[in-house]
Amino acid sequence: MSEHDSTYSRRSVLRLGALTFGAAAGAATLAGAGGNLAVAAPAVAAPAPFVNPAPPVSRRFLQSLDRSVALDGWTAQPFSMSQVTLEPSVFTRAQDQALNLARAYPVDRILAVFRRTAGLDTKGANAPGGWEGFGHANEDAWGPDDYPGRANTQTANLLRGHYAGHFLSMVALAYGSTGEAVFKDKVDAIVAGLGEVQAALAATGRYSHPGFLAAYGEWQFSQLEKYAPYGEIWAPYYTCHKIMAGLLEAYHLTGSAQALEIVTSMGEWVHSRLSKLPADQLERMWAIYIAGEYGGMNEVMADLHQITGREDFLATAKLFDLNALVNASAAGTDTLNGKHANQHIPQFPGYLKVYSHTHEQKYFDAVKNFWGMVVPGRTYAHGGNGEGELWGPANTVAGDIGTRNAETCATYNMLKVSRLLYFHTLDPKYMDYYETGVLNHILGSRKNAESSTSPEVTYMYPVHPGARREYDNTGTCCGGTGLENHVKYRDSIYFRSAEDAPGNPVLHVNLYVASTLDWSEQGFEIVQQTEYPKVGASTLVVNGSGPLDLRLRVPRWIQRGFTVKVNGEAQDLAAAPGTYVTVSRTWTSGDRVEISMPLSLRVEPTIDNPAIQALHYGPVVLLARSAATKFLKLSLYASMRLDGSLDTAAKALGDNVFQLGDLTFEPAYSGGSALYHMYFERSEPRIVFAGTDSGVANARRANGTSFLDVVWAEGSFVDRAAFLATVQRTAETFVAEGLLTRRDSQKVLVAAGKAKIA
Fold first, then answer.
1. Are 421 and 368 in contact (CB under 8 A)?
2. How far is the C-alpha of 593 from the C-alpha of 584, rounded, in Å?
3. φ, ψ (nearest 5 deg) of residue 634
4. Rounded Cα distance, 725 and 705, in Å
5. 257: how many CB neighbours lie within 10 A of its CB?
6. Three-state SS annotation for 577-591
7. Is the peptide bond before 533 cis (omega within 30 degrees of 0)?
8. Taking the mean position of all CA atoms in its chain, how far away is CA 211?
9. What is the pTM for the complete model shown?
10. How far is CA 267 from the centre of its chain?
11. What mean pLDDT comes out for the span 470-481?
12. Is 159 in a helix, a strand, or coil?
């Protein structure tokens, strides 16, 4: 028997799905013609307008299909997508645009690159385009051993198939959320199409295992084992992950048995390839720049272990360990500088899932420490990270601003890491980051425009002066994750206590988003009424009766307090920013929980340069509309209030748009197309309090810290007396350091005393 056994039983082939006439004919064509892909792409007629043929199924039925499970070690877990309904908010704009694309986009275009590779009829469909193209005319669907070498052939679109995996995830998520028949029909059609392709590929006898499924031949995987660089190959396991993840979503959210059958056989194929490789070879493979990028292969293999109970799948998940990174991160050693951000972030959800199954502490420590290396020290104001797709030095944000910052995929994956860490730890910082990233970067990455052909999302969401969001990205990695991003906003608004947790049921209210939660298992419906983030308030209406602990997130940006009333009665809660507070009681149907968290304008300096700052309104990052290519300079201390807010500095124009001098600021989530600045440079030449100018220069220390920086270092004051005491203490310090004269010190104290600051 050769190393790659090409003899399959009829049963092993039929297990992958019936070999239809089309699959058999395609296999014959592929084998007889050498599998050459040089077939002219036919023209495609414009799709007919979408008409929904059937009413949605019930949410209770959708919940019965959901096969998602809580993992060992979780103290909180998500609700089924079908249990949460979004009401109109800033998020529903992008959600509705994404759902319209999902309804309209033809399945045959999604399957075209797979069918072409398998020699099947493409049904007149063009490939989606971009990276998801048909490949080079001279390219063949080579097996593991017959690739002629880079010098002897031409290839193109070597990541093809990844976009289809994302689209399958998108329509599965859409069905799990809405119950619309069109989405279930598309899930079933894509799964059936992939099954047909998998069977056709197996029937050729050309590939190493009947579970192989891709939109190109198996040769890329073989070349990776020979350490082929990016350029010759393009991240074959990355594409494999996207296909497997889509199939798992189809299984989890629609109950597709065929999806599970296909993805299980893919898992068997992955195991068959990797289990025979030595550890040092695997380590070298996963460290190769982009070529060794594998997305979340360890996560899908751990998920397959969870579903099937098969130990070989868990063992395969661990074969994706990049030990140098895992061990360094577990030890708290930062080795991220120069690494490709989105090559490595997706590995960490997988490490955490392996931890849930093996309880090996190094995995948990690695994920927890890794997160702390990225947030806040490498994280931009909107939640993104990386420049030119690479991480820079630790604790460097301003110093790593270039022209290609913040790949949207990276934030998509950081949200996954944050969510899983919260399930384990209940640490509020993970959901604070989640709000920043999902509201500003992810929502803001979706253009405010309808399209039936393009996801209309950003690849980069740059942060440099005079930046522009470049939308579309059909077929790119961020175009793929962008298909998913905007149909799953509901998945982290609420969590619940793990099923085996003692005591009252606990509802975690993580995000303030207008929505309705159906928690019928506990006899509750929670209706959240809010215009947040335009208004700093939310009301929860509790329908149902019985004991329940409401765990409410107190955002870290709170400056003016966080208060809670139940049926008009104030609750005595220690609501510190960046925590959760719990309202525990036996509820009566119709009880109302009123949450007040006033929004205010504030600035956040970068971690490495306090002069480079971003303007925020509550959780919202504000962008200055400007085509200038150098940092704008703003003076703001003169407008600071005792609570540290800047509300008097700008005029509110509505919908979180502000006018500050001659600059207009818009919310980062707008989906607009204007040139913008996310950061500005603070310029505070004189010491001024609430518009009262002392006439004294704002002296600076050698490290660049100014007098006013020191005064406002704590961000706010409990009262005017505390403010005046701080000014006096700072003046005395600067005099002692030789940075202020006694006379100038007196001028500063007089100005502070006269200032009408409140």
1. yes
2. 12
3. -130, 140
4. 19
5. 11
6. CCEEEEEEEEECCCE
7. yes
8. 30
9. 0.91
10. 25
11. 97
12. coil
Whole-Å CA distances, 133 to 7, 119, 344, 455, 711: 31, 15, 26, 16, 58
Residue 149, helix vs strand vs coil: coil
Question: What's the pLDDT at 38?
Answer: 38
Query: Do 462 and 405 form a contact (C-beta atoms < 8 A)?
Result: yes
Residue type, 253: L
What is the residue whose two structure tokens read 């008097």?
648
Report how far residue 450's alpha carbon sits from residue 97's, in angstroms, rounded to the nearest whole number: 6
Phi, psi of 691 (to 5 degrees): 85, -5
Residue type, 142: W
The residues near 612 (Cβ < 8 Å, ≥ 6 apart) are 397, 398, 401, 605, 606, 631, 679, 680, 681, 682
Decide if 288 contacts 224 (C-beta within 8 A). yes
Alpha carbon distance, N-terminus to C-terminus of the chain: 84
332 membership: H or E segment, kind and range: none
Distance CA 751, CA 162 (A): 63
Q: Which pair of structure tokens corresponds to residue 745? A: 């010190």
| Chain mean position to CA 564 | 30
Count of CB atoms within 10 A of residue 614's CB?
24
**545: number of Cβ within 10 Å:** 14
Rg of the chain in Å (alpha carbons): 28
639-664: per-residue pLDDT in tens? 999 988 898 899 999 999 999 999 99
- Measured CA distances, 704 to 140, 634, 708, 744 (Å): 61, 17, 11, 20
φ, ψ of residue 336 to 5 degrees: the values are -75, -25
Rounded distance between C-alpha atoms, residue 690 and residue 712, angstroms: 13
Cβ atoms of residues 450 and 97 within 8 Å: yes
pLDDT surpassing 60 at residue 167: yes
Classify residue 90 by burial, with Cβ atoms within 10 Å: 0-12, 13-18, 19+.
buried
pLDDT classification of 513: cutoffs 50, 70, 90: very high
Geometric angle at alpha carbon 468, from 465 and 469, rounded to 5°: 135
Residue whose structure tokens are 């414009």: 46
CA 572 to chain centre: 35
Whether pLDDT at 43 is above 70? no
What percent of the chain is modeled with pLDDT above 70?
93
- Interatomic CA distance for residues 182 and 104, integer angstroms: 9
